From TrEMBL:
It comes from the Bacteria. It is found in: Cell inner membrane; Cell membrane. It holds the Pfam family ABC2_membrane. The chain crosses the membrane at residues 27-52, 100-126, 138-163, 169-188, 200-218, 230-249. InterPro entries: ABC2_TM, ABC2_TM_bact-type. One of its GO terms (cellular component) is plasma membrane. The lineage of its organism: Bacteria, Bacillati, Bacillota, Bacilli, Bacillales. GO terms for biological process: lipopolysaccharide transport. Belongs to the ABC-2 integral membrane protein family. One of its GO terms (molecular function) is ABC-type transporter activity. This is Transport permease protein. It comes from Alkalicoccobacillus porphyridii.
Length: 260
């Protein structure tokens, strides 16, 4: 950590470059940060609210409060898995902590999340009239928790992808499955009714279920709030994944230059 802090200026430059290059030569530029989730929101609203007839008050707000945080997960993991292989030329020429590349991708995706959450908060105020103060106090903590979880996952996949390039394709498939298993488009109360108490506990092993539930509690207010036990489990799980992923990266990244 101390070594990474010594390169904080480089980290800032890499995050800035990632944000600038991602939307270079596009007509809408940075507006794609908002246009992509809005487009998905319209599609899912049409499918689940009109065709499938999911009965939830303020379904559009319900959907966007789960979709935007999960898109942070999807972008960070999908792009983070390729963060080392896409910078192979730089890695082979200059030495600096290799962790900077996965961190750069995760932080640039985090910036997009923060921008999008401002609009989510504005829409929530328009629909609900207010956001609970307790929710605003919890928001930085849930963002930090999600970021730690994603960093651990990105550390693992980015390193493995150097040795097995199939990982970046497998990750794309896994992210689609993860989205549908994280209750992004449907309420948890429906899952509980369909699965029963025992299987619902197994469903909640997925940490994104708890994380998205907290986001929805903050901005939507109608979601089933996870129990203290599930929140504690998600916190411990995310911290463990973060440190295990980082340790795995430190060990496996020693021969990255040679493999590339």
């Amino acid at each position: 950590m101390k070594e990474i802090l010594q390169y904080k200026e480089l980290l800032y430059f890499l995050v800035h470059k990632e944000l600038r290059v991602r939307y270079r030569n596009t007509f809408f530029g940075y507006f794609w940060t908002l246009l992509e989730p809005l487009g998905l929101m319209l599609i899912f609203t049409l499918v689940f609210s009109i065709i499938a007839r999911v009965t939830i008050d303020n379904y559009t707000l319900f959907l966007v409060t789960g979709l935007i945080p999960f898109m942070y997960t999807q972008h960070a993991v999908s792009r983070g898995a390729k963060s080392l292989t896409s910078n192979s030329s730089l890695i082979k020429k200059v030495y600096f902590p290799r962790e900077l590349f996965p961190i750069t991708i995760t932080f640039s995706s985090l910036v997009n999340l923060l921008i999008s959450l401002i609009l989510v908060a504005a829409y929530s105020l328009y629909v609900n009239g207010s956001i609970p103060l307790m929710g605003l106090a919890v928001l930085p903590l849930v963002i930090l928790l999600q970021t730690m979880l994603l960093l651990g996952i990105v550390f693992f996949f980015s390193c493995i992808n150097v040795y097995f390039r199939d990982i970046e394709f497998i990750v794309g498939l896994l992210m689609r499955g993860w989205m549908y298993m994280s209750a992004v488009m449907y309420p948890l109360i429906q899952v509980k009714e369909q699965l029963g108490e025992s299987y619902f506990m197994i469903f909640q092993i997925n940490p994104m279920v708890t994380i998205l539930s907290i986001y929805r509690w903050i901005f939507h207010g109608g979601e089933l709030l996870p129990t203290f036990g599930m929140i504690a489990y998600t916190v411990v799980f995310s911290i463990v994944i973060f440190f295990v992923g980082w340790r795995f990266f430190r060990v496996m990244s020693r021969k990255i230059g040679e493999v590339m």
